[in-house]
Design brief:
Elements (H helix, E strand, L loop, with lengths): L12 E4 L3 E7 L5 E7 L9 E4 L2 E3 L2 E7 L6 E7 L2 E2 L4 E2 L13 E3 L33 E3 L22 E4 L1 H5 L13 H4 L2 H10 L3 E4 L3 E3 L3 H5 L10 E7 L11 H15 L3 E6 L16 H9 L2 E2 L2 E5 L14 H16 L5 E4 L17 H8 L7 E4 L18 E4 L1 H12 L5 H8 L3 H4 L9 E3 L9 H4 L35 H20 L3 E5 L30 H19 L22 E4 L8 H6 L4 E7 L17 E7 L5 E4 L8 E7 L9 E3 L3 E4 L3 E8 L2
Parallel strand pairs: 12-13, 12-23, 13-16, 16-19, 19-20, 20-21, 21-22, 22-23
Antiparallel strand pairs: 1-2, 2-6, 3-4, 3-7, 5-6, 7-11, 8-9, 10-11, 14-15, 17-18, 24-25, 25-26, 26-31, 27-30, 28-29, 28-31
């Protein structure tokens, strides 16, 4: 007979102390909870059920002496099945621990994994009594011990950061220098050839697509596809075992920690893309795997007056309830765990507008952000919001509080439109180039609140953006109805691959234009993995279900890919070398500290400074932005005054060449050309101030003024 002690209500989850395991599960409305122990992850039935004897503050707990790491377990929770009152307790369903540090096994869709009787004419009103244990994942007790050695966070200031968005599997799955068994895994990402590539590129942080344990949606399962991106979370504490070369009995935890340690040793931070806005249990007709069966009323937002239905701000069937303190605790505990135990450096919050939603005009609207800000650990990490969801008023770019950076969707849209040749106002373009002070300065934020990006995992790659007029998502099996509709008009006479050298060169130049604009703008650039290598998804702009070569990085480089890679490395190096390109403060646009020059000046192609009417009324077809580096008016982390060269960024979205008269008089020296997207491999000239510089059609140039 198993020896049972009462245990403790905290910490939640399964905690091994060297002599046994304490189990603690919160459920406010349950009438009873059973702990189920399994011999192996694949065992169809539990060897033992243990009624949890103690309840403290709605936490059910028990301690089992002698139990060891690797123990597989789950829960069965008792209570009313009354969907019209918001209760969906079904003890026939084995449930994953929301605080499980590791999860083993995969979900097999079967009618038994649903809490209601599938096909019943009353839909979800009749409970299903079949045992779901043979079909669902299991929780695993872990040993948290790990030798971190002298690991410490690189702590790269956000304003100095260059972020690289990647998928753990897709980045290394085809890497020829890695052992086959390590490709596509956490261990593969930690291998020297991969880290050397990241360092040579110059990025300071990797932003990993979701690595929380997830399950695939039913419609994908039925089609034999998977949710490759992973935005369908089951376990907020468990690294996904699909990326583990060390098994799913806890080895995935050690492997993840080893990956972080290796990246930190190379000076590279780890940012996690996290999905706290919804779970994998979908709408009221979805499977019962964890939260729904543990306490549906606590974890999910129900329709006011009709708790049978969920509020769906995410388009995924449900929204986690930010109104309940225990749901907020789950999220906060998860975030702290990933920082304190797994040593990650920050988070990108998927559909973060959902996290801010209380009742519309409710005093607790910003509770989540208040909790983050007062937390001594989380407030020191990098916090990045995807500042929108699909609910009413869901587009919140510019409205997140201090300490938060945002994916700047307005930056993406304006820069794309500018290089397409759309009519963009001068002021609009200038705001995006200089850190979007119109969005972020009002509440005390700085230029690095703007995460500047042109492409991301969700959408076209950079190469496809300039090569396809329309999406080509036929491989997804949804008749090309999925993904965003675009009418790009980039291709200049061809759709997709072409043998026309002029079209290919123009496309390559447009890629260079957008990369250069992003990496030379104020704010924090985010580069999509593979864009620097000319990667294509063959026109598919919604590759969420493509776990194959369409998403995996091709490590074989053709001439175009090699040239673009070297160009990108050059841009990042120039950005890192010039503090004027990554300021901590917004430009003041006026003389400062008694000087007779401004910190930023805007020029017309005739060499004259733009006037107020031109600033507000003209279209930004061709212009120059001069950064007076000695007027940065900032100090570094050691209190030293930051100074830099005078830099001149010239942009020409017109198809024709422009003779741009370079600012300055005959005594002001010369301009050294650092970058020209029209001639990236040609020797770059030096031009006297006051003389014209040929700025080719649809091109960008960066110049540095040298002393005479």
């Amino acid at each position: 007979m198993t020896l049972i002690w009462p245990g403790k209500p905290y910490p939640l989850g399964a905690t091994w102390d060297g002599q046994g395991v304490n189990f603690a599960l919160f459920s406010q409305h349950a009438t009873g909870v059973e702990l189920c122990l399994f011999d192996t992850p694949g065992a169809p039935h539990e060897r033992q059920r243990i009624a949890m004897p103690e309840q403290t503050d709605n936490v059910w707990h028990v301690y089992l002496p002698g139990l060891q790491p690797g123990q597989v377990y789950g829960y069965r929770v008792y209570g009313p099945y009354d969907p019209e009152a918001g209760h969906r307790f079904t003890p026939a369903k084995l449930l994953v621990d929301p605080y499980a540090k590791a999860i083993a096994g995969e979900l097999t869709y079967h009618d038994a994994v649903y809490g209601f009787t599938v096909g019943n004419p009353y839909e979800d009103l009749a409970p299903d009594t079949r045992n779901s244990a043979p079909y669902v994942p299991r929780s695993v007790v872990i040993d948290p011990a790990f030798d971190w050695g002298d690991d410490r966070p690189p702590a790269t200031p956000l304003y100095k950061s260059v972020i690289y968005e990647m998928h753990v599997k897709g980045f290394t799955k085809l890497h020829p220098e890695l052992p086959e068994a390590l490709r596509g895994t956490y261990a593969g990402l930690a291998m020297p050839p991969v880290i050397e590539y990241l360092k040579s590129l110059g990025v300071t942080a990797v932003e990993l697509l979701p690595i929380h344990h997830h399950v695939d949606e039913r419609f994908l399962f039925d089609k034999g596809k998977t949710n490759y991106w992973g935005y369908n979370t089951l376990g907020y504490f468990a690294p996904d075992s699909r990326f583990s070369s060390a098994g799913d009995d806890g080895g995935q935890v050690r492997e993840f920690k080893s990956m972080v340690k290796a990246l930190h040793a190379a000076g590279i931070e780890v940012i996690l893309d996290v999905v706290y806005n919804h779970t994998c249990e979908a709408d009221r007709l979805g499977p019962t795997l964890a939260f729904r069966g543990i306490d549906n009323l606590v974890y999910y937002r129900q329709m006011p007056g009709y708790p049978r239905e969920y509020i769906d701000y995410t388009g995924c069937g449900n929204s986690l309830s930010m109104l309940h303190p225990r749901t907020l605790q789950l999220i906060m505990d998860s975030l702290r765990y990933w920082v304190t135990e797994m040593h990650v450096d920050g988070f990108r919050f998927d559909l973060a507008a959902t996290l801010a939603r209380g009742l519309h005009a409710d005093a607790r609207l910003t509770t989540f952000f208040d909790m983050i800000h007062q937390d001594p650990i989380l407030s020191q990490t990098k916090l990045i919001a995807e500042p929108w969801d699909i609910g009413p008023g869901g587009y919140q770019v510019g409205n997140f509080p201090v300490l938060w950076a945002e994916w700047n969707g307005k930056y993406r849209d304006v820069i794309r439109r500018y290089w397409k040749g759309d009519a963009i106002g001068t002021a609009e373009l200038a705001y995006r180039l200089t850190g979007s002070s119109d969005l972020y300065e009002h509440n005390g934020r700085k230029p690095y609140a703007s995460i500047n990006f042109i492409t991301a995992h969700d959408g076209f790659t950079l190469r496809d953006l300039v090569s396809y007029n329309h999406k080509h998502n036929e491989a997804n099996g949804e008749d090309n109805r999925d993904g965003e509709n675009h009418n790009n008009s980039w291709n200049h006479g061809a759709e997709g691959p072409t043998a026309d050298p002029q079209i290919n060169e123009l496309r390559a130049r447009q890629q260079r234009n957008m990369l250069a604009t992003m990496l030379l703008s104020q704010g924090v650039p985010m580069l999509l993995a593979g864009d620097e290598r000319n990667r294509t998804q063959h026109g598919n702009n919604n590759t969420y279900c493509q776990d194959n070569e369409l998403n995996w990085i091709d490590w074989k480089l053709d001439d175009a890919g090699s040239a673009l890679l070297e160009f990108t490395r050059t841009l990042i190096r120039i950005r890192n070398e010039h503090p004027a390109l990554h300021r901590r403060k917004f430009f003041q646009g006026r003389s400062i500290q008694g000087a007779n020059v401004q910190d930023i000046e805007w020029f017309r192609p005739d060499g004259h400074e733009m006037g107020n009417h031109e600033w507000s009324e003209t279209i930004a077809g061709c212009l120059g932005m001069q950064l007076n580096g000695r007027m940065i008016n900032e100090w570094d982390e050691r209190g030293n005054v930051i100074q830099d060269d005078v830099l001149l960024l010239l942009l020409n979205a017109y198809a024709d060449d422009v003779a741009f008269k370079l600012p300055g008089g005959a005594r002001d020296g010369e301009w050294e050309v650092l970058v020209d997207t029209a001639t990236p491999e040609a020797p770059l000239p030096t031009v006297r101030t006051g003389k014209p510089y040929t700025l080719h059609g649809r091109s960008l140039a960066l110049l540095r003024r040298t002393s005479r």
